[in-house]
Amino acid sequence: MARSALAKVGRGGGGAVASAVGMETLRALHGRMVLVRTAEERLMARLRSGGRWTGTLHPSRGQEAVSVATVAHLTDEDWASPTPRELGVHLCRGMPLAEVFAHFAGAVNGGALGSVVSRTTPSLGSTASNLAVGAGIAMAFKLRRQPRVAMGFFGDGVMGTGTAHEVFNLSAAHGLPYVLVCNNNGMAFSQPVAETSPVVELGSRGEAYGLPWKSVDGTDVEAVWLAAREAVQRARDGGGATLLECRTPRLGGFTTAELMEETIPRDAVDVLPRLEARLVELGVARTELEAAAARARQQVDEAVAHTEALPVVHSAALRRRVYAD
Amino acid sequence: MAEPTAGQKPYDPLAFSSQELRDLYWFMNLNRLLEERLTVLYRQGQIVGGLYRSLGQEATSVGTGYATLKQDLVGPMIRNLGVFMVRGVSPQDIMAQYMAKASGPTMGRDVNTHFGDLSKGIVITTSMLGALLEVMVGTALAIKLQKRPDQVAFTWIGDGGQTNGYFHEGMNLAAVKKLPFVCIIENNGYSYSTPNHRETPISQFVLKARAYGCPGIRFDGNDVLEALWATRRARAMCQRGEGPVIMEAVTFRIRGHAEHDDAGYVPRELVERWKQQDPLARYEAQLDTLPNAPTRAERDEMRAQIQGLLTECVDKVLPMPQPRGESAMGGVYAGEKRPAVPPM
């Protein structure tokens, strides 16, 4: 509530309230979010046109801040465990766009998303598992006494699973250096959150575990960034795990295969135009935003061209990346 | 670590009838004295499998169990012998079960409290701690779907059991569907050898209710009247559609996890402190102050009756045969009520 009031004061009063995030960071976050959205839009179109583009994309449209503004606080040594709906995490952690596309285009160098280079674990379809994998990494950091942080992602549907319960409890009991990011987009496949959770504010479930928690508007990039900074700092300082809920609208449907248009909210706030309005309010020129969009389009064009020039993976390569070698 | 609770009691001790006071006394003593007999039998090598004592926790089993009504469905766990007996299971059946006798409730196929009796509203206990909670949420769902407003489902779980995923998935469903379900977390300080503080940073398990947006009631688990009073409140909430309810009984496991465990990992002084809170001794003292309570002479008489009853049971059950190997294939499929081969 306080945050939206702040934004309104900014708009109405002529002189905008300065961003606690800082202009350079805010511009960088915008650039990454534009790239994630452009890349996903292109992937969506390619996957629906068929041909060599196969597989399923879980669009993060409207939820890009959750992927982008959280991992912005991680260092190269930290790890993240995103779900398939956080393609942006892999990208922001340094996975090349062409490599991500290759994954969807059956190219030889394609493989499971996630890599040792980007320090992101493969996004597992059984989505609760990502949260557990991240907790394991956090446990390793703690046992090795490394000042590193792990960040795990999950949705509102996972909130009701036994895996989430066990991870929450373990993270709290052992004070793991872990940030548990819940992307509450209001829909678990086709089930509204009111049918899967008995409490409205999912983050508040942290109280049952002794986990510090926060619930923020996921369409407010600054709020997500600030809350994630606090959580990462706590983990790095030895203060243990934090449950961070980001409330978002699922603007892109469930997947390319099952769009579920009837579940897409019509009147929801879209995080990207909201951020752009905020940037303009803070004095950023429209032309600068347009330039960012053009840069993203160019990057995506190049990555698509690069990917389509690669041969389709041969069945003999199926065994690659299965065993350690 | 749980500490004995103290201070002002939330209930009126004068509100209980003389029959209720007598029944509670009878069942608490039956619970303890039966377990003492079982311990002797265990040391004699007569018990098959482990013996899971509830010494120091009898008030929780008896008080909560006594609050359930005939039509309710209950899923007690292994340490809730009192619940079984309050619901009408005889000490003889429990002895036969512990000694794997062919005449016992599971005909010697399973041991200890791993049995049920739907005629008494007892759903069969599963040995996987936590899994029983989901079964009981299922019965609560059935109660709701079949529109039986006078029924409530109950289960018991430990401080360790509530850490596993079953608990969460069951409670989440119960809360989303607003089921008439009471979950009693029996916090006895230790999950086998793991103390509370290594299990969770929260100080009270009743806080679990916050994850499910449901009412939570914490009570002194060594005060049988408070256990009864609190559970009746929880039951009434469920009947008003305010369920599910999470309850926390604050108590302590005086013995080890089972008789084979010497519990050397529990600090002696902690056990000594809790021994001062013995639920039977506390109830005796409370009865001395209540006008409608059985007199000391009547109580002595009741205990003597129980001892006589238990001696009869031991004498009867000891010579009973265990099942014959050939009978193992019987009673497996629906329609076969008894083993195809007679037990002996």
Explain this structure.
The complex is a heterodimer of chains A (325) and B (344). Chain A has helices at residues 2-12, 23-49, 64-71, 87-92, 97-104, 128-143, 162-173, 193-196, 221-236, 271-281, 286-309; strands spanning 79-81, 150-155, 178-184, 187-188, 191-192, 213-217, 242-247. With 325 residues, chain A is an alpha/beta fold. The termini of chain A are far apart. With 344 residues, chain B is an alpha/beta fold. In chain B, 41% of the residues lie in helices and 9% in strands. Chain B contains 12 helices and 7 strands. Chain B has helices at residues 18-43, 58-67, 81-86, 91-98, 131-145, 165-176, 196-199, 209-212, 224-239, 268-275, 279-289, 296-317; strands spanning 73-75, 153-158, 181-187, 190-191, 194-195, 216-220, 245-250. In chain B, the strands form 2 sheets. Chain B has a 5-stranded parallel sheet, sandwiched between helices. In chain B, strands 4-5 form a two-stranded antiparallel ribbon. In chain B, strand 2, helix 6 (165-176) and strand 3 (181-187) form a beta-alpha-beta unit. In chain B, helix 1 (18-43) packs across helix 2, helix 1 (18-43) runs antiparallel to helix 11 (279-289) and helix 5 (131-145) runs parallel beside helix 6 (165-176). Chain B is globular, with a radius of gyration of 20 Å. The chains are: A alpha/beta (325), B alpha/beta (344). Chains A and B meet through helix 7 of A and helix 6 and helix 8 of B.
